[in-house]
Amino acid sequence: MQKWSAISIGVLVVSASLVAAVAAKDAIENSVSDDSADKESTTVTKVEAAPSVEAQHENIKKQLAKTLPGIEVDNIVESPIPGVYEVMVGTQIAYVSADGKYLIQGSIFDLDSNENVTEQRLGLVRNDIIKNLNDSKMVVFGPKKPKHTVTVFTDIDCGYCRKLHNEMSQFNELGIKVRYMFYPRSGPNTESWIKAENVWCANDRREAMTKAKNGEDVTSKQCDASIVAEHYQTGRMMGLRGTPAILLESGELVQGYLPAEQLLARL
Description:
This protein is α+β, with helices and mostly antiparallel strands and 267 residues long. The protein has 3 domains: 12-50; 53-128, Nuclear Transport Factor 2, Chain: A, CATH 3.10.450; 132-266, Glutaredoxin (3-Layer(aba) Sandwich), CATH 3.40.30. Helices cover 43% and strands 17% of the residues. It has 9 helices and 11 strands. The protein has helices at residues 16-49, 53-67, 117-130, 159-166, 168-173, 191-201, 205-213, 226-237, 260-266; strands spanning 75-78, 84-89, 92-97, 103-104, 109-110, 115-116, 139-141, 148-154, 176-182, 245-247, 253-255. A 5-stranded mixed beta sheet has the order 7-9-8-10-11. Strands 1-2-3-4 form a 4-stranded antiparallel beta sheet, with no helix packed on it. Helix 6 (191-201) packs antiparallel against helix 7. Mean pLDDT is 83; it is low at 1-25 and 27-41.
């Protein structure tokens, strides 16, 4: 926009001295007014030129698509760090700079509260994933009046999974209900997978689970055991690295075995 330093005003000269004085005064006032208006216009122009939140997010997506082809970004929000954005891909979180040039993997910690901000966000995502999986879609061991509920991804042939199951009475005595989801680490159509299907198709799933964990053969009738695949896919979405994996009520995921007392302390 053109900057005005002075305004030329054409006048009819009636009285040279009087009109000149008036014209000079008007010119000064108009110049000040125009300069103020110009500053305001400049400020408005700068605000309008700033990219919208949606545009900023779209720019980041485009930049990531160039550098990381095949990655589909599900969500972008501002992180607690100015100029850094949280990017969600499935249930995985990373952070990128505003220009999409730099990517950071890892957790953000709030040093004032000593909280893992990233883990809190992931907890919300995990709970959202399993909210539609109620007890009827799991194998459940629990007291009559549980104080806490945990969801455990288990592999029939996993050593520490068996150790956890052998201590089930201790968990239940502390008021902890354990909901099992199947996660055969070897994948579909393997021995561990078939064992999981047999447990699910048994008339008494709790009894069958205990037998299978003890290394006993479990035979059952044919049934719809697609729940095993559903559990397995859920575990993959959560990025499980092994079993047992214990999902707490807060959404925190504990990767590995915990004794009953230590688990209670985390709840």
